[in-house]
Every structure is written in C-alpha cells, then in structure tokens.
Amino acid sequence: MKSFTVPLAGAPKRRALRAALLSVASISVVVALAGCASATQSTSTGAADFKKATQNDKATITVWADSTRLPAVQAYQTSHPNAKLNIVTYDGSADGSTYLQTKVQLFDRTGKGWPDVVFASPTDVTWASEATSPSAQAFAAPVDELVSKSTIDNFAKGSLTPCEFNGHTYCLRNDIAQVVTWYNKTLFDKFGYTVPTTWEQYQALGAQVAKDHPGYVLGWVGDSNSQESYFWSSQCPAFDLIKPNTLRVALSAPECTRMATLLDSMIANKSISTQASNNATFIKNTAPKVLMAVGPSWYGQYIFNGGFKTPAGQIAAANPMTWDGDTTAATGNVGGGVWMISSHSKNLKAATAITKWLTTSDANQGSAPTYPAYSPAAKVWLANPTNSKYFASDVSGAFTTAANEVWTGWSNTKFSDATAWSSVVLPALTAGKTLTATLPAWQAAIVDEAKSVGYTVTTK
Amino acid sequence: MTALETGGRLTAPAAPSPARRRTPRRRTGLAGYLFVAGYAILLVAFGIFPTIYAVYLALTNDRGQFAGLNQFIKVIQDYRFGPAFTNILIYLVLWLVILITLTVVVAVILRSRLRPGLSSVFRFLFYIPGALAGVASVLVWLFMLDPGVSPVSGLLNALGYSTFSEVIAPQNLPVIFVFIAFWTGAGGWIVVMYGALNNIPDEILEAARVDGAGPWKSAWFIQIPMIRKWIAYMTILAFAAGTQLFVEPQLLQSASLGRLNPTWSPNQLAYVLAFQFGDFNGAAAVSIFLLVIGLVGAGILVTRSGLFKADSE
Question: Where do the domains of chain B lie?
Fold first, then answer.
C-alpha cells in the first residue's frame, strides 16, 4: 500500500524533541535533588480560636437543610414571620456525600459564601470543628458558647458525643436513629411466627421462612447504611477510635465474623435481600413480602410508610436482639443528623435562635419525622398520636430501650463509614461473593481511607 | 465547525516564496487585533493561566514552600492513584478503538453506499445525542441502565441483569462509559469524517473503480488513507477528552448512592483531593500528570501522522 503523504523529514525534529526531553529530565533531577519542602499538608492546631464576625442583628441568615428537614425550616419561617431566612435545599450529607465539605473548602478559599446554619451528618462535624487550612477558621461555631448549659445537658445521654471536640460542643443533635427490630405484625400473626429476641433465633427463622414462605424476607443489606444496622449492632470493631488519632479496624474479630456468617447463611437461603430498599424493583416485588427488618427508628415512617407504602396498623417494633449468652443487647445507630452554626455568621443571634428552635422546641421536634435527641422533646414525640397511629402497637418501649443500648465502639470518624461499604462490599455481594470472603477487602478499604485522612491504624 | 468550512483540509500557513519578496501591503488596522483579542484573552484567562497556576501549585505545598517533585511522589504513592489510572487506561483503549473503527466505517458507508438523502437523514440522527448537554445525556443513561425503568429492560434481562446494581458492577463500568461517550460524541465525528471523505476528488475514486477496486478495496486503500490526518485529529481530541472523564462516573456514583468508587477516574481523584481534603497541591499534581499524558499522546500522533505538514501538492 502506498501512502499518499510525503515521508517525514523526521530525523532533525526527533533530535530536537530528544534534546528537549533530556533538558526537562535533567531539570527535574536537579529540582528533586535540591532540598525541597515536604508535600504533606499542614495539620490543624487543635482548638482554633473562635473569632466572631462583625455582628448585625438584621442580617439575613442562610439555612441549608435536606429535603426531609426543609418543612421544619419553613415552619420556623411561618411561626417567626420577622426572621429573615434564605432557605437552601441540599443533599444533607446523606449516603457519604461530601457536598457540604466540598463547598466549605471553596468558601474558605474565597473567604465568603458560608451558610449560617446547616443540617449535616455527624461525620461532617469531624472536619467542621477543625480549620481546613492554616489561614481558615473552623467552620462550626462552638455552640456551648452560644446556648445555655442546661439546654446542652438536656440532650439524650451520649447523643452529643459526635459533636464534642477539644472540650467544646460544635453541633446540636437533631435526632437519634437507634436500631430496633421492625416486624410486620399482621404477617407474623398470619404465619404463626414469634418475633426473635436473639440473633440465633433470627437466623433460624430465616431458614424456616426460606422453606415455608419463599420470597418473604427478614431484612436487606443493600443500603449504604446497612453496615450500621447489622455490624454496629454486632459490636464489630470496624471504626473504633481507641485514641483520638488511632483507629482500630479489626474485621477479623469474632464480633464481625459472627455477623458476616449469619448474614451469609440468610443471603444464601434468600431470607435476606442484597438489594437497596430504595430500588424500584425491590419496592415493587419484595417490599410487600418484608416480614422483618433490622433498622433505625426512622424505618417506620420513612421506609415502611413512605417507601414501601405498607398500610397502617401492620408494622411494629421490638427491642434490639441479643446474642446467645449475652445479657444485654447492643445496637447500632443509623445516621441521626446534626445542626451546625457557622463561625463566620454575621447574625449569630438569629442563627442560634433557629438552631435552638429546630433541635429543642416541642413545636418542631414533637412532631418531627425522626426521633428527637433532645430528651424533653422525645417525651412529647412519643406521646404524639401521629407518631404512633401508623404502628400496630406502641413503639415507645422499643425506642427508649434501644436508645440506651447504642454501642459506643463505632466511632464518628473523619471519613464516612458508608464509602467502603457501598463501593467495595455491596458490588462484591451483587457479584455473588459472601460477606465473610469480602471482610478482608472491606478492611483494606477502610484502612486506606483512614490512613489518607491521617489516622494511625491498628488491625489487631 | 471551522474544520469543515476550510474544505476538510488542515493547511499550514503557506511560507512566503522567496521569489516574491515584496509582500502585498497589508491593512494593519485594529480590527484584526480586536477579532483575535476575544479568543486570546479567554485563552489566557481560562487556559494558560490556570495551567501555569497548576504547575505552581504542583511544585509547592499548602504553606507556599517549594516542594520540588514531592507532590508528584505523594500522589503516585496514594492508594487511589494506581486504580484510577488503570481504570482510565482500560476505558481509553476501548473508547479509542471503538470510536475510530465505528466512526470511520459508518462515515464510509454513509458516503459511498447510501443514497444522499438517506445519508443526510442518518447523519442528522447520529448527531442529535451530541446536542444534549453532557449531564443531561448521562441522566438519560441512568434510566437506560436501570432494568426497573429502562426501555430496553428486556435486553438487560437477556444479558442477565435484573437490577441496576448488577448493571453497574465494577467490571462493566468502562464499557458503560464507552457507550455513553460514543452515544454523545460519535455523531459529531461521523459528520466530520463524512466531510473529510467528501474532500477526496471523485477522479481518484473513479480511477480506482476503472482499475477494478470494489467499494471495500477503495475504502481501505484510498478513502481511509486519504483521511488519515482527520483520524489522527479525532484521536488526539478524543484521547485528551477521554483522559479527563469525570461527569459520567461522578453522576453514576451519586445516582447509585455510592456503589462506585468515588475516585474511579484521575479527574475524580483530583476533585476529591482538592475539595474533600483541601489538598489543592496534590490535585494540581494529578492534573499535571493528565496534561503530560495528553501532550505526549498528541505529540506522538502529530509527528507520526504528519498532521501539521502542508500538503505536498
């Protein structure tokens, strides 16, 4: 075949290119050999000083909330017509989203634009309580300097732990999401099953359901937070901060493997689904056959009522399950949002007022879609008929019991516990691998993430 | 498309012949500068300056101290660097092979084997998806890939996929991204290749026919070699765009609630480093890697294909 182009007079050109490459390489070597500063990022100097911006009581405040919390903010506007609010909806940092962190990084660089009040996940407080760069101020204002001590003391025991850093409290907890045992009372009565109180009974029931009522499920593990329902409840040391900067990630511990083995057997006999609860196919085919679910307090209203459209009067909640031989149960906590006030706010008075109303007022929390972290409001919430009339029986016993049983060994880390689970474990399950076989890969992914944000990691 | 307007030929400015020393008097008014200024200013502001700034960032640390190559070493040692570049390599190989083969074959068929009317209808149809903005086209694919709502759910089921999470399994991702990229981008290139084929004088094809070359022979020995520069041009641009893959994995990541690695592509890694960890210097180092890869790729293609050489007529 003859080419139609003239052969290139390539030699001189190539020589020039080689010379250029050579000079670049030699410059690089010289540069590399010269004493250079380290590429590691500056570390924050701990408790940053909180310098208030010039205050203006009439300034409009910007509030960022997720779509679930949006009606609450709008209700505040209605009941406080004089409040000047600019309300913005965003993803609320759910499912491991880093939207808020991304934006604050940018605002810190441009020196303006921060929202005054934000709804966020506890993970966000880990970075918001520290300055993002040497010249920046930590995004979150210490709320203990803005609200009274009695207000802080009234939050449920341990619920403000994710907010506490360097002796200050950087957020107010909106809700707690203690994991309870959900079941469909109507179906249980129809099939003649008893609600399991131990994990071993749960597993046995799975085998029986698989045999007698194939197609029915006792739960699912395909959500980005399923690890918090199951492995947290099993006291698996996956995110255990044993010292402020030392993280224990030990997925070979028996507390992890026992849950992996249990789930593997139930996934194998199809009494547990590996799909996500928001998946259209799952809602269409499997949701009407959900006998049980191990999940947080908000499953009732969100998943069963909102997502699955299970009719009222069928769903009930029981206490968290124990393991054979254990006397007390330990349970997980799935989410539970927080409100933070920006340290850059020009109107801290208004920002504090709305944050206090959102987290502690009976008017808001008493009818909130999730279980209040503020204890006096939680009593009102449980007594509120709209929070109970959907259920087949009173859920307040299970909710209060579970709220006191949340295991404290699953720490609030600087990275989301959802990323590795969603991007490593769930695709492996979808591909047909077992959880037990995936534990090492999950551990490796957590360790990588932990190291990249500066933790010292131990896997023992 | 300026390329088409110049008659499908990339011409280098003709060197003034030594015989004609007295160049015709040029009108050196302001207008020329004004016309060029718009582009030049934007190029400096959004092309040259950010590149220089990225080089500066990549050679310093966040305290503004000179860090030499330490930022590059740091990002290479990052656990996300290897997988991200491996992913993009697999994607690029698939993407370029499929793009080059299919666009050229389709253009040749449209040019030589179809009636002109039908051919223009097809060119229009192929081009439509490219008119959709990038994000919108990815959203279309989110529906296409979910067997629960997809119009082609039958096909997905036949392939053994019954759920969205099965479709977006890690090993399928490069193929999915190639589909999306091909669907949005190939139409424009088919039109460009068609224009290039139009530029081949009919006499040459006529001569080939007289010599006994069938349609495939003339495509292989005459048409494709004659649009070689265009293929190189397409490869350079597709290669550079391909290394910068970002929107597709990013949207699929959030739509699947995190079932994709958030640092699947190098550009996503740079994004995460900059905006999640505040490591703008490390992010700049990753982007310099992409720049160098793009420049080396383009350099090889330009020199090998003689893209910038004036035609020897």
Answer: 90-268+289-305
